[in-house]
Amino acid sequence: MMLVRQHFPTRAIADIPGTVAAEMAASNFASKIPPGGSVAIGVGSRGIVNIDIITRAVVDYWKSIGRKPFLFPAMGSHGAATAEGQADVLAHYGITEALMGCPLHSQLDVVSLGKTATGIEAFMDKLAYESDGVMMIGRVKWHTDFVGKIESGLFKMMAIGLGKFAGARIYHAAAYRGMGLGVVVLTVGRQVLSSGKVIGGLAVLEDANHATAKLAAVPAETMERDEEELLRLVSGWKARVPVKELDILIVDEMGKHISGAGMDTKVINRSVWGEANCFADLPLIRRVFVRSLSPMSYGNAVGIGLADMTTDHLLETVDWRTTQINSITANSIGAIRTPIHFATDRDCMDNLCLSVGVFDDSTLTIGRIRNTMHLDLLELSETLRDEVEANPSLEILETRPFTFEADGSLPDIFGVNAALAH
Fold first, then answer.
1. Pairing state of beta strands 2-6 and 377-380?
2. How confident is the model at residue 34 (pLDDT cuts 50, 70, 90)?
3. What do you get for the CA distance between the two ends of the chain, in Å?
4. Pair type for strands 309-311 and 110-115
5. Do the Cβ atoms of 11 and 211 come closer than 8 Å?
6. Cα dihedral 74, 77, 79, 83 sign
7. Tens of pLDDT along 84-93?
8. Phi-psi label, residue 62: left if phi above 0, alpha if psi -120 to 50, beta otherwise
9. 85: left (phi over 0), alpha (psi -120 to 50) or beta
10. What is the distance between the alpha carbons of residues 290 and 306, in angstroms, rounded to a whole number?
11. pLDDT at 372 over 80
């Protein structure tokens, strides 16, 4: 195996609090909230880097101009669809009342915002609706389930996030019954905007190094157009597995904070609806082997059904009730089907190698990544050396034999096993 560094352009923002303050000050948000008025700030459950720093900077801005901000979870059915569970998710990202310097209200009551032209009833968190104005903090990126001009971002937060568990069930049902999630997100988002309660959002864009690369205050009036432009921009920064084909892709960890589907479908070339190699512009990946569930997923193993093989250990760490709630709400029950599983990594690899139509193990093409979010450092088999050396963005750091530890586990090259131990 070759340990390979994938070099991406560096776009990291040096001063995140300063950039947030400048963006917020340059927006027209303040004019929409009366002096002393309350501002509801929605924060989601995705693993956004620096989310605690970004959120605190937004809170500090509102306090500095004499407004009264409070935070609330905007995350549909995550956190087992309970108020306590959703507050706990935010706490693990460092978002608590004490650390943010403002109240955090987690509850599931909603207010109806009427129906879209397509007949879908839209909802909003009740406490957020009763505030003087609502904004979201969300990452704009591609979505794992569909392709559109707007995918995952502020519009999706307005729909499935602000609508809480009540809205998430209805929206996903409408998508499943033929409308498609892209249409639902767009039409429900427009309905939420028409309520006049949303003043805008802070869009977060991350580069391929998983660094905060852009922060943009997006007003409600131009949110649809602005989010389309931001998605086009960030999609050009997307990281990918840098080879044409793999017999086996080893994914050391999966989790909801990594991707809504546990593993980014537009990295592993899978669909939550069961199709394999459905994206023509991505590498052909014959088998996916996922080794562990990140503790930051809190037992939610949605997306495990995208894998062909897993370990007994991963399945032992699954909170099936939490997983089932999320999967049923999203109408994607195939995404939690249990793959073939064995006791050790060695057992999994031995059996996987028999399933890819290769009779000489020395010709296998194998890739290994920490997770689908971190693709700057990965392992690729020696059989891919010619392709790697022909790519100027790839650097071979070292080579080693493909070996196992005495207990049958793969060497902990990305530090995942160490994290699990804690």
1. antiparallel
2. very high
3. 28
4. unpaired
5. yes
6. positive
7. 999 998 999 9
8. alpha
9. alpha
10. 9
11. yes
* CATH classification number, 16-235, choose in 3.40.50.11440, 3.40.50.2300, 3.90.79.10, 1.10.357.10: 3.40.50.11440
Per the listing, tokens 């880097």 go with 49
- Please list, in sequence order, all residues whose beta carbon lies within 8 angstroms of the beta carbon of residue 146, skipping any fewer than 6 positions away: 180, 181, 182
Closest of 371, 379, 412 to residue 242, by C-alpha: 379
The Cα 119–Cα 195 span in angstroms is 16
pLDDT band at 387 (very low <50, low <70, confident <90, very high): very high
- Output the six-digit token pair for 17: 């609090």
The single-letter DSSP state of residue 138 is E
Q: Name which of 218, 198, 306, 226 is nearest 258 in CA terms.
A: 306
Q: Which residues contact 344 (CB under 8 A, 6 or more apart)?
A: 311, 404, 407, 408, 409
What stretch(es) of the chain map to CATH 3.40.50.11440?
16-235
Which residues have CB under 8 Å from 373's CB, separation 6+? 47, 210, 258, 259, 264
Task: Give per-residue pLDDT as tens, 99-145.
Answer: 999 999 999 999 999 999 889 899 999 999 999 999 999 999 877 77
Residue 36: what residue type? G
User: Which candidate, 219, 116, 117, places its Cα nearest to that of 159?
Assistant: 116
Do residues 323 and 347 touch, judged by C-beta distance below 8 A?
no
Strand runs labelled E in 108-178: 110-115, 121-125, 134-139
Q: With pLDDT > 70 as the criterion, what percentage of the chain qualifies?
A: 98
pLDDT band at 419 (very low <50, low <70, confident <90, very high): low
User: Six-digit token pair at 14?
Assistant: 């040096």
**pLDDT of 368 over the 70 cut:** yes
| Mean pLDDT, residues 326-333 taken together | 85
